Amino acid sequence: MVVNNNLTKLTEDNKLRTSSEITLNGETKYIIVVNGDVNCDGEIDFIKDIIRANNYRLGMVELSIPQILAADVNSNGKIEFIQDIIAINNFRLGLIKSL
User: Fold this and answer.
1) Hey, what's the torsion of the CAs at 86, 88, 89, 94, to 10 degrees?
2) Torsion of CA 92, 93, 96, 99, to 10 degrees
3) Is residue 75 a contact partner of residue 87, using CB atoms and an 8 Å limit?
4) From its phi and psi, is residue 42 left (phi > 0), alpha (psi between -120 and 50) or beta?
5) Would you say 92 and 50 are in contact if contact means Cβ atoms under 8 Å apart?
6) What string of DSSP letters covers the chain?
7) Chain centroid to CA 9: how far?
8) Phi and psi for 79 in degrees, rounded to 5?
9) Which residues contact 41 (CB under 8 A, 6 or more apart)?
10) 74 touches 90 (CB < 8 A)
11) 28: which strand partners?
12) Residue 4: pLDDT above 80?
């Protein structure tokens, strides 16, 4: 994805999602990480994100580096059940306002 310098549009559906790429001035490339958006669809939900993060934690699936960073919401370098996965679920349920 290439974005112009005024950053008015990031995606066709205006969702910021994990693994979206932004290139500025044709040179500088940024890869977006959205806390909790483990499956890179721009939404945080139970089956696609929480279960996937937990399955990675258990060694059942592989994740890309941006996906791992999206699952590690407390940014301590590991995906933990209580600190990360429960936090994603609490955000999804509206119990906390941000990740």
Assistant:
1) 120
2) -10
3) no
4) left
5) yes
6) ----TT---SSTT----TT-EEEETTTEEEE---TT-TTSSS---IIIIIIHHHHHHTTSS---HHHHHHH-TT-SSS--IIIIIIHHHHHHTTSSS--
7) 19
8) -95, 115
9) 15, 17, 48
10) no
11) 24
12) no
Q: Is the dihedral of CA 99, 66, 41, 13 positive or negative?
A: positive
Q: Are 33 and 18 in contact (CB under 8 A)?
A: yes
- Backbone phi and psi for residue 23, each to the nearest 5 degrees, phi listed first: -115, 125
The string of pLDDT tens digits covering residues 29-79 is: 888 899 999 999 988 998 899 999 999 999 999 999 999 999 999 999 999
Q: Distance (Å, rounded) from C-alpha 21 to C-alpha 85?
A: 25
Global confidence as pTM: 0.82
pLDDT at 15: 77
Query: What is the number of other CB atoms lying within 10 angstroms of the CB of residue 38?
Result: 34
